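Why run this: before we spend reagent on co-expression, it is cheaper to look at a predicted model of the complex and decide which construct boundaries make sense. The entries below are exactly what would go into the expression plan.
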Amino acid sequence: MIPIEHYLAFSLVLFAIGAAGALTRRNPIMILMSVAVMLTAANVNLIAFSRLWGTVHGQLFSLFIMADAAAETALGLGILVACMRRRDARGAAEPELSKW
Amino acid sequence: MAGNNLLFDFLAAIAAASALAMITRRNIFHGAILLLATLLATGGIFLQLQAEYAFAAQLLLFAGGIVLLFVLVAMLLAPGALHHPARFNWRMFAASALVLVVAIEILAFFWARHDATLWPSVAAMPPNNTGTMGDALFRDDLPAFEFASIPLLATIIGVVMLAKRRTE
Amino acid sequence: MPAALTILEEFAIDVLDAAAIVGFLLIGLVCVALMDRRISEDLAPQPARRTENLPVLLERLARALQSYGRGLLTENPGRFLPWLASIASVASGIIAFAALSFGPAIHLANLNAGLIFIFAASFLGIYGGVLARGFSVFSGSLAGIARNAMRLASFEVAAALALISGVVLGGSLSVGQIVNAQLDQGAWFIFLAPLGFVLYLASSIAGIDTVARPSVRRVAQADGYIEAETAEKFRWPFGSLGASIHLLIGAGLAATVFGGGWLRPFASYHDHFAGTPVELLDALPPLAASAMAVYLFWLASFEKDNGRRQLMKVASGVCAALFAILTGVLFAPPAALAAVHGAFWFVAKMAAYIYGFLWLRARIPQFRFGRPIRAAWNFLIPVSAVNLVCVAAALVAREQWNWSPAGSIFLATGIGLAIGIWLGLRDIGETRTYGMDADGRQQPIV
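The model came back. Tokens follow.
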């Protein structure tokens, strides 16, 4: 196995990129995508350590993270679509979604 | 061994570059496809770490589920973006570069002080990954499995309620 | 420099394996297209056109590959998404083939969670359909795109449930383990879980169209646009290359889980020819190949079209070469014998599945609009779920309560079949004919 520091470094870089996206973008879809990247970075960390210790619990927890990420994405996108629908129904101008 | 290192470097570079490109895209469809690339590359890293079930789950859940959701919702909310080419955005690039530089500096600080005796030697993984995961899920860590179903149930109910048309 | 060479050595075999798989897939695509043309011709005989021969097919394939490659190297970022749409289903299919085993040691990767990987990789083909429909004529209709995606997802769930009933018998998700379990239990899983196989076939037939790209283009007329079918000289079955590859994957999965993979029929029957180490049943592949060669050559004399005749003769020659290889390897070391004959049996089972698939698909009427998803959720998925439970119960009955194999098979199939028939009859009873009454409202005609 490659020394664990490589995986930690990669996980940190990926998390930082995701955090940058989540904090700087204004498009809600882009924010949710950046959150997904952050969760993936956490998964990389978990699975790397699971390999280091030779157990399967890290992978197990990463499964739960994946399931909850899917749920959170679905719910977030659902809320977004509902908001957009309401805004359109009230006759607002073109939704701001096209701005980044 | 060298091939192993090279493979990890390759996959990590793809994942990081795709993620960086993703957060700087103006066109959300390009962003969604780059997210797909990031997730696939990370899945490859899982496979290299002998987490085969996690790799398959990453493909199925993240790549086949979440990104598909993003693409469909993007088509719903900004259908025009599918046909518009993307343009470069300097402000975004500068902000991302700054955050990245700060992160790397933090990392370098800790790396320089790393202690080789901090980590244990690498243990061997149990041979049958899926079987071991199954044992862990349904026998050893059963409460975690059961509790994980509660947020999923709440999400399903929430999404169904959101999607219902109000009959007023 | 030496470091680079060792890296190359590490990956060389894998690269060669991957190239072999892609080559096999391309040949398989050509064969599937020809088979489909032949099978659907039996239904509606068409006059042999000059555009139907093998060179045109190969040219079509080459042009498709060329356009994929050109799209990869092109500089224009605006064309990236359409190119991705065209390649997504093909690429996902090719990737999924990496985990299938053609023989005891012939695979690109022996994944522990192999079946899920194959399933997940083929599910990625949905992006082809979603993005392609986004760019097509009907791009305004998101409901259509979402409905297509949900249709694929529904039928994939049904197919997965049916497949898992076979996996339950095998006890593992690894491809090698499942085939070895069929060897140990002495029966292919199609005999132990027949309803599962039928359900898998049905779900695959229903779901295959959803990865296809629509081939409708806008054509300008004097008074606006009409939508016309593209004027292609030769159409792939299901309208796209990606769907054909997904058919090949479905065939590979069915052959592995239900058909016994690379096992010979009666794999544990080890009678030999007198005095030689050659086993009796190992003579079946050469016999089959030689019979096929003779049959094709004889059929060639009946073909009216010259191109077809040449094609038949070439195919007959290929079968003769196959006969030579299969016989020659009988006297080779056991590893080579197992590998070559294993690959032969695997491909033969895939071909049988594909033939049955295309034959059924050509004869079953297409689903009406709005019916497919209801058919999946109200019929296929409940029956698959019940079948899964019954197969698991049958496994327990056979192993722990010592029922006879026949009894357990009856348990596995009987309940599922009964529920399937009940659901089917109930559904048929519910279809009604709608007509307009005097007020202009739609009323069911009782």
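Residues 53 and 130 of chain B are 6 Å apart (CA to CA). The mean pLDDT of chain B is 81. Bring this page to Monday's planning discussion.
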